[in-house]
Amino acid sequence: MITPIQSFEQYLEAYEQSITQPEAYWENQAAQFLWKEKWSKVLDWNFTEPSVQWFVNGKLNITDSILDRHVQTHPDKVAFYFEPNHPEEARQVYTYLEVYEQVCRLVGVLKSKGIKKGDRICLYMPMIPELAIAVLACARIGAIHSVVFAGFSAQSLAERMNDCGATMVITSDGAFRGQKTIPIKSIVDEALEHVPSVQHVLVYQRTNETIAFKEGRDDYWATAMEQASSVYVSEAMDSEDPLFILYTSGSTGKPKGVVHTIGGYMVYSAFSFAHVFQYQPGDIYFCTADIGWITGHSYVVYGPMLNGATQVIFEGIPTHPTPGRFWEIVEKYNVTHFYTAPTAIRSLMSFGTSIPKQYNLSSLKVLGSVGEPINEEAWHWYHDTIGNQQCPIVDTWWQTETGGILISPLANITPLIPSYATLPLPGVQPVLVDANGTILEGNEVEGNLCLKFPWPSILRTTWGDHQRCQQTYFAAYPNLYFTGDGCKRDHNGYYRIIGRVDDVINVSGHRLGTAEIESAINEQVDVVESAVVGFPHDIKGQGIFAYVICTPSESNEEAIKRDILQMVTKVIGPIAKPDKIVIVSGLPKTRSGKIMRRILRKMAEGEFHQLGDTSTLLDPGVIEGIKEKIIALG
Ligand code: WT7
Predict the structure, then answer these.
(1) What pLDDT was estimated at residue 589?
(2) 575 pLDDT exceeds 80?
(3) Which of 261, 282, 437, 631 is deepest in the core (most CB within 10 A)?
(4) Measured in angstroms, how far is the CA atom of residue 397 from the centroid of ligand 1?
(5) Which domain holds residue 117?
(6) Average pLDDT over every residue of 389-412
(7) Burial 255-283 (b: 16+ CB within 10 A, else e)
(8) Distances (CA, A) of 564 to 155, 200, 633
(9) What are 333-367's pLDDT values in tens digits?
(10) Using an 8 Å Cβ cutoff, are 56 and 239 in contact?
(11) What is the pLDDT of residue 118?
């Protein structure tokens, strides 16, 4: 098991070694897991193709280190406390042994469907332990999982399944979310009308609602599990075989399938969890992220379970039935480690301090933040009201593509500065570059955040399109991985993430490409053209602001706006719905036809005076028209 770094001096020493002797450093880390065959070489890499391989020729199955290992030493240790959406429903407890047995049985089900190593299985499920079990069953049989967050629309789901050529879907009948019940299976059915590759659908019954059932294709989880043999031996996989594909938005085109491979991801997700959170045996960890996002992959399923942690899995939402729900859970389970997103903190903060004060939060030892910059006000509220000024806040910076936390304080070790992600983890080599790609040396500099050396869980490719991976991450600056984030390094060398420098917006910690939202809006018949930008939003961090040009039509503006919202919900999902829509007669364009987004961003913030240089605009008159519309919007 991993012994967490215990002091700042130890951190500095580890960091130094990880930079001067990276191979020796990571080899020692990797040796702490179960391998079926040892690697022949620790690292092989270049950032030009790019090609990165860790623990080359090593053979393993990640579930051996997650399940078999813990089942041998502590089978009855709790893996999951499942807290259902409705507090009246009884909680459930799953030990490591029980998870192991369920995973093995589900492997039996997958085998009976003919699933084999390398097949892609799509998971579209609520936040329940069976989702983690499904993830692990895929890993155990060597199938590549692609989890799609159950808030995405049928169209988005279909697009992802087609992109990766999924042959099977694991889903549920419905999902409980706050006061709503979401018809998960019918969304899957709708998606599957457009996905010829899927042959099998396995349905976990969560809500017990009536669903359409297609004989020959569909099967119920419970019946299939009863009939399946439990296959115990895990498939031997290569260290560089893909473990999963997770789709994420970028500044251009459709979402891309980020590919992570087994060996490096295993080592880094476990390593980062142990050091950042300083998890000790007996601690109770609660991460509020859904497994449909990378945070749920790395810090619900893989990182904590590789460390044999006990955690709470919560199905519901922070405000149901009351905005004290998270704090009630902390009290109920004596949660020691709580990891959430700034948007949740800001939202709960808005209900007032009196709510958390009604609960006993004294079990808490470490608080975590992820997904977007945490503003100072939210940081202080989290620190004072939730942590009673006793708990460090680990502001963890990372991305879907990085697989694990790269820049973050180590709890109780790294000095904290509100809104700073502080220092890189061992093995992580950040650099800041200016627009020309010149590396900015020294402290007190600000630039684009890049990494100059691979860490074990760096993405390996984007599914089916390696060129796109090269173009998106490795082309902007030669021999550097470019994150898309702007960042500042202060006088002590501490890092503060400023936000995206590309056309990606971060809405409630979720990443959305403006181009993707525009193309959804453009599907609405009345729309001729649209431009989407982010604007500062009190709760969500960034809100979505859409400028839309429409054809003259009978419908009134309100009706068109309603239709646009419906269209975006249909094409992407409710998370991508614009917060504000203005229907305008023109967009600020240069003579070469390029939309000047800088101006649209300013106006979305309500800033009309300092728009900068507008002399290159084809028709400076459009500005006045847009301004009137925004003011009328209120
Ligand atoms: C983008 C990655 C990492 C899991 C959740 C989001 C922003 C993430 C922080 C942080 C400031 C952050 C960045 C990054 N971001 N964490 N602690 N401070 N910004 O994963 O959807 O891949 O988004 O989220 O802009 O590039 P993602």
Answers:
(1) 93
(2) yes
(3) 261
(4) 6
(5) 8-445
(6) 98
(7) bbbbbbbbbbbbbbbbbbbbbbbbbeeeb
(8) 16, 34, 16
(9) 999 999 999 999 999 999 999 999 999 999 999 99
(10) yes
(11) 98
CA distance 540 to 124: 24
CA distance 280 to 304: 11
pLDDT tens-place string over residues 46-60:
999 999 999 999 999
Substitution candidate for ligand 1 out of 370, 417, 504 with most atoms within 8 A of CB: 370
Q: Phi, psi (5° rounding) for residue 43?
A: -145, 140
Q: Are strands 51-56 and 445-451 parallel, antiparallel or unpaired?
A: unpaired
What token pair was written down for 488?
């500042």
CA of 398 to the centre of ligand 1 (A): 5
pLDDT value, residue 231:
79
In the reported structure, the alpha carbon of residue 141 is separated from the centroid of ligand 1 by a whole-number distance in angstroms of 31
Note whether 427 and 355 are same-domain residues: yes
Question: Angle 154-164/557-571 helices, nearest 10 degrees?
Answer: 30
Q: Whole-angstrom Cα distance, residue 178 to residue 355?
A: 18
Atom of ligand 1 nearest to the CA of 484: 26
Residue 159: which residues within 8 A CB-CB, separation 6 or more?
A: 254, 255
Does position 627 have pLDDT exceeding 80, yes or no? yes
SS3 for 98-167 is HHHHHHHHHHHHHHHCCCCCCCEEEEECCCCHHHHHHHHHHHHHCCEEEECCCCCCHHHHHHHHHHHCCC
Instruction: Decide if pLDDT at 630 tops 90.
Output: yes
Question: Can you tell me the distance from the alpha carbon of 327 to that of 517, in angstroms, rounded to the nearest whole number?
Answer: 35
CATH number at residue 97: 3.40.50.12780
Nearest C-alpha to atom 8 of ligand 1 is from which residue? 371
Q: Look at the chain and report how many structural domains it folds into.
A: 2
**Does 522 lie in the same domain as 418?**
no
Looking at the fold, whether 515 and 441 belong to one and the same domain comes out as: no
Q: How far apart are CA 505 and CA 483, in angstroms?
A: 14
Q: CB-based contacts of 216: which residues, under 8 Å, 6+ apart?
A: none
Ligand 1 atom nearest to 421, measured from its CA: 17
Is residue 329 in some structural domain? yes
Q: Is the pTM of this model over 0.85?
A: yes
Cβ-based neighbour number of residue 514 at 10 Å: 24
Examine the domain organization and report whether 512 and 431 are in the same domain. no
User: Which atom of ligand 1 is nearest to 500's Cα?
Assistant: 25
With cut-offs at 50, 70 and 90, classify the pLDDT of residue 222. Answer: very high
Q: How far apart are CA 419 and CA 384, in angstroms?
A: 15
114 exposed, middle or buried (CB, 10 Å; 0-12, 13-18, 19+)? Answer: exposed
The residues pairing with 394 across neighbouring beta strands, listed in sequence order, are: 368
**Is pLDDT at 553 greater than 80 in this prediction?**
no
Domain shared by 36 and 173, yes or no: yes
Q: Which residues have any ligand 1 atom within 6 Å of their CB?
A: 248, 294-295, 370-373, 395-400, 421, 483-485, 497, 500, 506, 509, 511
* Selection from 469, 472, 545, 468 nearest residue 514 by Cα: 545
Q: Which residue has the tokens 């003579």?
A: 591
Judge whether 472 lies within some domain: no
Q: Are 539 and 377 in contact (CB under 8 A)?
A: no
**500 and 528 in contact (C-beta within 8 Å)?**
no
Mean pLDDT of 287-296: 98
